[in-house]
Write a structure and sequence with these properties.
There is one protein chain. The radius of gyration is 18 Å and the shape is globular. Helix 1 packs antiparallel against helix 11 (198-230). By secondary structure, the protein is mainly α. The protein has twelve helices and no strands.
Length: 250
């Protein structure tokens, strides 16, 4: 991309967003060090019946989270990022303490906390979380690869998609998100099922996932706001961000 076409202040914004993107990708390292394994091996630890129903469980968790997050906005104000992280970490510890049964039960609760955190970040950037289009954008953040993934920016395609949440379209959006999110959450469940240290692993993975998706929400809505402020198309911004991420990783 020709950087001469990018205003200097927008270029600075893109650089800061790229730093957040890179930061998000590094939060899983501590979890892998704790578990002493590789992310790609975690899913193999899950029993076959759980793996077979993982996408279905993720779809249900997303539906529950969307309804619960929307209802709770009128009752509970947005919390600070640290409080979201503390709450999710505590739930991860509780979920991991009982192995897979409690970890599966905890899944929709954690997903709801994550979605509320994403909605709060959207509001921070000047967007209305009650707007159906912004609700769709919040869901889209879950399309990013999970914190235990290392795909060198290949998941940036989620930033290019623009979706609108109207009627039955929500199920179409969730159906597109669920396969990728289920793979990420499957790694989380496998970590929580580690013998003896399940509670510690659950807390660590939830900390990593909450930190990751909050950072990716900053990337997502930071890019949206930059596009609106400078009148630059989203596709052009994503390309520029991709270049900035590559530079930051050198």
């Amino acid at each position: 991309m020709n950087n001469a076409l990018i205003p200097a202040d927008l270029d600075r914004d893109i650089t800061l967003i790229a730093e957040r993107y890179c930061k998000a990708g590094g939060v899983g390292i501590q979890v892998l060090n704790l578990l002493g394994g590789q992310a790609e091996n975690l899913l193999e630890r899950l029993p076959d019946p759980v793996k077979d129903r993982l996408e279905e469980a993720t779809t249900k968790a997303l539906n529950v989270a969307l309804k619960a997050a929307s209802r709770s906005r009128g009752v509970l104000p947005d919390q600070g990022l640290w409080l979201n992280t503390v709450a999710a970490t505590a739930m991860g510890a509780a979920g991991g303490a009982g192995g897979l049964p409690t970890a599966l039960a905890e899944l929709p609760v954690t997903t709801t906390v994550l979605l509320r955190a994403i909605q709060g970040i959207a509001k921070e950037y000047g967007f209305d979380p009650n707007d159906p289009e912004i609700q769709a954008e919040c869901l889209q953040v879950f399309a990013a690869a999970g914190p235990l993934s290392d795909d060198d920016g290949a998941d940036m395609g989620f930033l290019s998609a623009r979706v609108t949440l109207t009627g039955a379209a929500v199920q179409s959006i969730i159906a597109r998100i669920a396969p990728r999110l289920s793979a990420a959450l499957g790694q989380k469940l496998a970590a929580q099922a580690v013998p003896i240290i399940g509670a510690v692993a659950g807390a660590a993975t939830n900390y990593a996932y909450t930190s990751y998706y909050q950072e990716m929400a900053h990337v997502h809505f930071g890019l949206m706001r930059a596009g609106q402020q400078h009148g630059v198309a989203r596709a052009q911004l994503v390309l520029r961000l991709s270049d900035a991420v590559k530079l930051a990783k050198r």
